[in-house]
Amino acid sequence: MKPRLLYLAAFLLLLNLAFFLLAVLPAHRAERAHAATLQVLHARMRVLRLEHRSQQVMHALLKKMEQFRDQIPPQGAILAMVRRITDEARRLQLHVPSVNYQPEHVAEDDLVKLTVQMQVGGRYAAIRRFLYDVEGLQDPLMIEKLVLSSQRGANQLTLQLQLAAYFLPETDAKKAKKAARAYPVGETQAGVEG
Question: Which residue, 7, 78, 109, 141, shows the most beta carbons closer than 10 Å to its own?
Fold first, then answer.
C-alpha cells in the first residue's frame, strides 16, 4: 500500500507542478507584463495631462494676444489720434507751434510704430493737465521722451514731447474704409501742425 501512496503522491506532485508551470507561471508573467504596461500608461497619462495643461495655457495666451491685437487700431486712425492730442492741448489753451509724426513699419510684429514729436507752450497747470489727459487717452500711446523748460522771468513753460503709438498696417481698401468709419478724420499731416 505504501508504494501506491507513494505513486499517488508523486502523481499529485507532478500534477501540481504541471498546473503551476502551465497555468500559474504564465498568469504570473502576464500579470507582471500588465503591471508594466499599466505603469507605462500611467506615465503617458501624466505626460498627456501636462501637455494638455500646456496647451490650455498656450491657448489662453494666444486668446489674450488676439484680444490685445484686436484693440490695436488700424493705421487709418493715426490722424485721428494726432488730432485728439492737439485738440486737447488747444482746449487747455496751450500753444502748439508744431506737431511732427513719422510712421515706421515694425516688421517682426507686423505693426506700424508712429513717433509723434510735438512742442507745447503754456502755463504749468495747463501743461500738467495736458500730460495727465494724454496718459488717460484710450489710444495705444506712450510717452517716450519729455523735456520741460522755461525762460527766466517768463510765466510760460515749453514742453517738448515725444510719443509713440502702435497701429495695425492697412492691407487693403476694405480695412481703410472700416477705419474711416470707426475713426472719422478728413485731415492731412499739414492740417494738424501749428
Answer: 78
If residue 48 lies in a helix (H) or strand (E), which one and from where to where?
Answer: helix 25-71
Q: Which three cell numbers stand for residue 85?
A: 492730442
Helix crossing, 78-91 with 124-136: angle to 10°? 150
Domain boundary among 36, 71, 106: 71
Q: Is 127 exposed, middle or buried (0-12, 13-18, 19+ CB in 10 A)?
A: buried
pLDDT, tens digit (0-9, with 9 covering 90-100), for 57-77: 999 888 887 777 776 666 667
Q: State the Rg of the chain over Cα.
A: 39
7 and 49 housed in the same domain: yes
User: Are 40 and 90 contained in the same domain?
Assistant: no
Beta strand extents in the chain (DSSP E only): 95-106, 111-122, 141-150, 157-167
Over the chain, what is the mean pLDDT? 80
- Cβ neighbors of 71 (< 8 A, separation 6 or more) are 140
Are 56 and 32 members of one domain?
yes
What is the DSSP secondary structure assignment for residue 23, as one 8-state letter?
I
Same domain, 111 and 167: yes
List, for residues 100-113, the tens digit of each pLDDT value. Answer: 888 788 777 677 78
Rounded-to-integer distance, Cα 163 and Cα 154, Å = 26
Distance between CA 192 and CA 98 in Å, rounded?
A: 8
Full residue range of the structural domain in which residue 180 is found:
75-192
Q: Output the pTM of the full model.
A: 0.52
